[in-house]
Amino acid sequence: MSTSGLTRRRGAAGGGLGSTEGEASNAASRTNSSTNVKDTGPETSYENSENGHKIAFDPRDLSESAERSKQPKLTMMEEVLLLGLKDKQGYLSFWNDNISYALRGCIVLELAFRGRISMEKDPSRRRFSPADRNIEVIDDTLTGEVLLDEALKMMKQSEKMSVSSWIDLMS
């Protein structure tokens, strides 16, 4: 136990006492990962940065990034829709009355994130709120997502309109 008033929290396997035997066995179980398949203990590595500060990271995150690259990427609209679904019932919860408006906003944001559209660079329009600024198509290359491609085609073929006008029009 430390004398500064801080106590070390134990994982699911440990008790409240901070004995050196328990710490040694806990450290041994973490280092012997081949025998312990489900390793839930915290693991931290340090890396020295350019300015001399130590940066802590979990090396397990590096191995998980290879897994994530194999999984299909979701658009922001798909992520928001999944957040709105009730897990057990499989439908949208009562608070999602305006989710269609939010999903249309996600289409506009996703096109902006992918570098297909941007706000007009007119200095006279900077006094307006972002919702009232005009959108212009800067790259009409198709994204491969049907909804995004249709929205991009609509934006390219029609006159320049504001962000809120596009969100209202996509209903």
Automatic annotation (TrEMBL):
- Where are the stretches annotated Disordered? 1-71
Task: State the compartments where it is located.
Answer: Golgi apparatus membrane
Q: Which domain of life is it from?
A: Eukaryota
Composition bias type Basic and acidic residues, residue spans = 50-70
Bilayer topology annotation: Peripheral membrane protein
Biased segments, Low complexity type: 20-36
An example GO biological process term is:
retrograde vesicle-mediated transport, Golgi to endoplasmic reticulum
Where does it primarily localize? Golgi
What is stated as this protein's family in its record? Belongs to the GOLPH3/VPS74 family.
Name assigned to this protein? Vacuolar protein sorting-associated protein 74
The species is Claviceps pusilla
Taxonomic placement: Eukaryota, Fungi, Dikarya, Ascomycota, Pezizomycotina
